[in-house]
Structures
1.
Amino acid sequence: MNELAARFKHNYGGFGLEVDLRLPAQGVSAIFGPSGSGKTTLLRLIAGLERATDGYLSVAGSVWQDAGSFVPTHARPLGYVFQDARLFPHLDVRRNLDYGMRRIPSAARRVALDGVIELLGIGSLMERKPDRLSGGEQQRVAIARALGVSPRLLLLDEPLAALDQARKQEVLPYLERLRDTLDIPMLYVSHAVDEVARLADHMLVLDGGRVVAQGSTIDLMARTDLPLSGDDAVGALIEGRIAGHDETYQLTTVDFSGGRLTLPRQARAVGERVRVRVLARDVSLTLTAQTGTSIINILPAQVTGIASAGPSQSLVSLDLGGTTLLARVTRKSVDALGLKPGLALHAQIKGVALVK
Amino acid sequence: MFAAANLEAILLTVKLASLVTILLLLIGTPIAWWLANTRSAWKAPIEAIVALPIVLPPSVLGFYLLVAMGPQGPVGQLTLALGLGTLPFTFTGLVVASVFYSLPFVVQPIQNAFAAISPGLFEAAATLRARPWDRFFSVALPLARPGFVTAAVLGFAHTVGEFGVVLMVGGNIPGRTRVVSVQIYDHVEALEYGQAHELAILLMGFSFVTLFLLYALNRRVTTLSA
């Protein structure tokens, strides 16, 4: 019963949302989709901030909404992080954090706020009013405040969308630390492929108010038929183990089912399980293995599929010993190389990033 | 310092204005909250009724209150049935009339302050386990505080400054309904210009200081939140 089951039919402003879904109530599940696909509405329905005319919702065994009952938001054991932080302007950071925590019985306080404050690095901000905080600091305080109620489910609505690139990079590592340290299931709404790839174990893809796909992030990131395939940040995830380190050249090698990848030196122990990400635009294809090239990662692969990705581009799915990799090439190259499913060739990988 | 009759009028005025301000904050807050949040078709007509005393001559308002509270009026019938007598020409009647007369000066600042609060903050409070009443007291009231200060000051000052309604409903009974503004009128009628000056200067000074403090305070609040 450790899952979230939801069925909603909801209309707002001429836009209909109709979903029937089950999500694991553990780890991080991403709700992904282009803007206007209904992601935020789905999250608001789960929080009870919006009430579907026809709906059913149960989380880890307790029913929050069905035909005859509707648990109001303040009675649902959840935490909610809004895109725009929504800190109380009349309270300093300390009292913002205390706001939710004071409203739950002390016996129900499973999350130690002191630990969260340290984890999010906001200990020095306690006396400040929200208008004296940067966007990134506000969002970290908002996350800590939501955790203060010891939620059974943490809902995050594009918590990084309002931040610039630098602030995003500031907050992301904190979210990763939360995922790795706290045992609180999270639903993470995002339209940014890279955030989802770094954070989520499971993902749900929405488009036009309907669920178009759901499954493990690794499986879905390797598909070419989803609305994320047009994104410049599309790329496959590869799971593997640290094979060793080269101290002379400051490199780390990772073994996976399709061979060995070389990355810049990582502070990880040999044997540790890791997840790396290879962007489709960083993969090029050659029919014969190139010599005399500066590219280190060249692996044998087999074409499994070719999908269109825009007027001039194609997205090629490759099989590397059971692991899927994506390559973005021009349609012209597809024809010139005679790419077709079953063809054996070599994938040249220009960039590999460790994401987990 | 003041003549005994003047002092009596001053104390009566302060008592009336204080009582009316407290009543108006209690009555005006729920009205302001409703007006700030409702999408009902009744919003515009209710807003218009609340604002009527701003444009109506006090004599019109006073006339209808007098009729309503008189022995033949609906309010008068009710008070008579309850054994309270009739309200015109009593201090209680003056309080009731003043509450109507100063209502817009209290409701409008509070309504504007409530309307300026981002609805997202109430949603955030709900996700932090706050029930509806809790959200009102912990988010709406503290954030609307400048509006309450303005409302209280304007409500008090406006009650001190009324004349026409008092004359219509309260008459001119020493110690019961003879407030400062009426006392000044009396002095002028009796050609006691010195006595009239004493009170007129007092009201002038009070009004200026009150408004000055109000604007200075609001300026400080805006600068702080900017």
2.
Amino acid sequence: MQETGYRRFKIESKPAPHAYPIPNKFDVSARKVRLAGMLLHEAFEYKFKKEVVLSRPCIYGVFGGRFGGFKPIKQKCVGCMRCVQEYPHIMRVKPSDEYKRLGDSFWTPEMVYTIWNEAATGKIPVKGMGYKGAFGGEGFDGIWTDMSEIVRPTRDGVYGREYISTSVDIGRKPVHVNFEKLDHTPTTLEVPVPIILDELPAGTESDDVSIAVDRAAEQVGTLRVTGKGDHSQANLPIVDEKQIGEYKQTPRILEFDAQEQGLLDKLLSDFGSTILIGRLPLKEDTSSMVSELVHRGVHGVHLYADYHGWDYSKEPRHISAALKDTHQQLVREGVRDQITIIASGGITLAEHVPKAIICGADLVGIDTTVPVALQSEFHGETQNRENCGLKPRKIDPAWGTQRLVNLMSVWHDQLIEILSAMGMRDVRRLRGDIGRSMMDSELREQSFKGIAWAA
Amino acid sequence: MGSLELIVEKHTERIHHGLEVLPTLKHGLPAGLGNKRWTGELILATYEQALTGELPMNGLEYKTGNSGGGFDVLGWKSHDGVAKVDEDQVDLSISLNKRGEGKKIEIPLPIYGGGMSFGSISLNFMIARARAAKKLETYTSTGEGGYPDQIVPYRDHVITQVATGMFGVREETIQYAPIVEFKYAQGAKPGLGGHLLADKVTSEVAKMRESSMFTSLYSPFPFHSVYSVEDHKKHVDWIKTVNPRALISVKVSTPTDVDMVAIGSYYAGANIIHIDGGYGGTGAAPEIAKKNIAMPVEYAIPKVHEYLVSEGVRDKITLIASGGIRTADDVAKAIALGADGCVVATAEAVAVGCTHCGNCERGRGCQVGITTTDPELSQFIDPAWGEKRIVNLFNAWSKRLRIILAEFGLASVRELRGRKDLLVRYK
């Protein structure tokens, strides 16, 4: 029997531990001769009271193995440094070389670890003490989201967060009611999270990976962009002119290369009720191209940067800046509300989702994050769409599905954290709301105005 | 002495010894220590100042971190040609009540301790902070975890915090307080409220907070009785009715309209507006909140200061900044940007051995007894030892503040307020 009434949207997560061992974050070692000397010294000092002498300076069990400090259990080390504090002449703790090698020039080891852990646990990363990273930065790192001192969407504290809607509509919306065409209801597709899974980076897709991505998209209720022409419910196929004739039934949604001349017109004529999303690289003239597409009847655009989040202009801009440009151009023309903007490229962490939406996207597509969550290996830079340095590993599709569901679950939870702090009930209200964000570059100039540059 | 006592004694001695030895760099700079905000050197320099009460003399960086922005890209203008004043004559005191009415409270240094609640930190560390506040003639804040009997002897130096969970807020704890602090938001988790993980809710913590053992405790956000400045005024009136002597501090985070919040707080009767930036500490908070929500305090201070000046009320309210104040130089820079003084908490934790590793919420809690309720680990901090370390740290900071002020020919820290012209920016 179908469930009736209101149902809170929640993506159920379940543990999906790493299938392949991950590098230890820290490398802990002891100077063995000194350690032996210390043990001897303490044996006499504490009159051979075994429990005192062998009481170890670690509450995480790093020295809890049979050989204690002589063979520390490195994977248990959390970098608390107490062993170094107690025995600075004996103990060494440093970030491990394997950990430091993770990722590429964009994916920092911390980012890789974050995605792995989110995919494994489905839990929001929580830590004590303060923030430990860089101050602001470029791109998304240079944007802070606003908060409200006195407004929160619900009155029942943390338990009420589920009342915040993260649904978005994909498709074209009319700006007014046409009484002569009341039988022509606009077609839109609602997804419960403003995140879709973009086409997998070249070379990262195996059959098992593909199954995992399909099933995860279906389980979450979102879409998966694919160039394979698969017509399953969760798929958002990319179609070219040759493939148009292969469709026996009118598809509900399609992506197409918007740079291909005449393709939009053909699709509009062949698939009148299909939601048509034009795929375009972000570059200098994207705003005018999108504007033209809107006037020709497109229902949405999928704007993409490279996998590091840089657009394809001669002087590359970060996707956040390029998106703002296009969004604001459409606002000025009074057509922004008619179409959907999907953004992808460089959206790799949970916080990038609300920030991309603030910059003007309705929803985002994630790309390299998917293979990273599935423990693909880094073999060089991941920036290039045609030659991404991620190589897939063999996976169990069920495991892969759960990893991606966990990832979406934890990103959804974090989106709600951001929205609730802003006092917003609906992610749709966040779109292009630059006034509810703070830019590092602007704040710096306002607040540090009057401070001279050092010679 | 039983084995357990011996074990505690052994580790306490070793930790204390390590805190003395590490800053000498005899064994090098530990590679795993620190991060961009609290660099390894800054942590060791804090240990050193907490040990000696002096500024480090061995070249350890004790002024800035390496975050690439905010305080870390601000320095001091050359003071060549400026007539110096005698460092010993420099006055570091600030007033916490600038209104025409109410009790006049001054503190001899422009610093007091931030709220860290019982439950999120150990009782011993809490007592150490209260003792240090008394010794320094400044204040510390209870945070929102109740008012343990053990800190009642120091009540003249303890601020009672009133936050949304109202844990430990009782008539007598409001009446104890020379200052009552409303925590509307916290910089490290702005707009999200508080969360004490179940593992930390021991019988003592549960009793103090009048809750059940080993059950997560939430401080919901926001105050459900406050949706306007007028509502806030009712809050102030409530406190003033219970304790007419108390000064009122309003702790808020740093949204885009933080200047409006500040002016609203002033008109509602606050004596202190306390702005808490996102880079400050907390027992546990989502990483996404710390990094991404609300502006850093370095940007919020001038915004609030200049707005209060333009509204003509700047000299009637004390502006306090917190959330990422790590050093004496950070304090001075915050004041030059427009604050009257600063609230400090993480630096006090570092003074007693914190490594800023961020594992406060994990398992038994802090490995050196700071953010823990574990009965064994808590014993690593003897309140008298902790008091001495915190007092030493602030004595060292006072020396550095005096040096900065004296070099610019300023006889009082009050003259530094809003002097952005004394700062320079680095690229």
